[in-house]
Amino acid sequence: MNFSNLFITLGGGHYTSLSEAQEAGAATINYGLFITSFIRFLIIVFVIFLVIRQMNRWKKPDQHPMDAMTKKECPYCKTAIPSKAIKCPNCSSDLDDWKENRSRKKTSPNLRLKIK
């Protein structure tokens, strides 16, 4: 439906189309143009909403761009892994166990077994 031809004349005359009323010089309220502009605006806003929603779905939750770029090295296989990794994806070693073993080694006394 073409809403652009909807209008109200402020004078007492009756006109069949908007162009006829404008040619006669009658004062009109063109509410059809407003409705058309409003529907176009709603369509554009809806499309932008869908695009932004899809982009948010592609982004992984709790993933900050700086966290994704920072890497650390696996102590076992020496490959680069994400900084928040708990388990190495390459060698499947637990990184928390390595920290615990390293801290135990620091706290335990050096015991040497001498065999004669």
Description:
- Residues 92-116 are annotated as: Disordered.
- By secondary structure, the protein is mainly alpha-helical.
- The chain folds into two domains: 3-58, no CATH class; 65-107, no CATH class.
- The protein is 46% helix and 9% strand.
- The protein is built from four helices and four strands.
- Strands 1-2 form a two-stranded antiparallel ribbon. A two-stranded antiparallel sheet has the order 3-4.
- The longest helix is centred in the middle third of the chain and has 28 residues, at 31-58.
- The radius of gyration is 36 Å and the shape is rod-shaped.
- The N and C termini lie far apart (104 Å).
- The model has no long low-confidence stretch (mean pLDDT 80).
What is this structure, in a nutshell?
This protein has four helices and four strands; from the N terminus they run E-H-E-H-H-E-E-H. The chain has 116 residues and is mainly α.
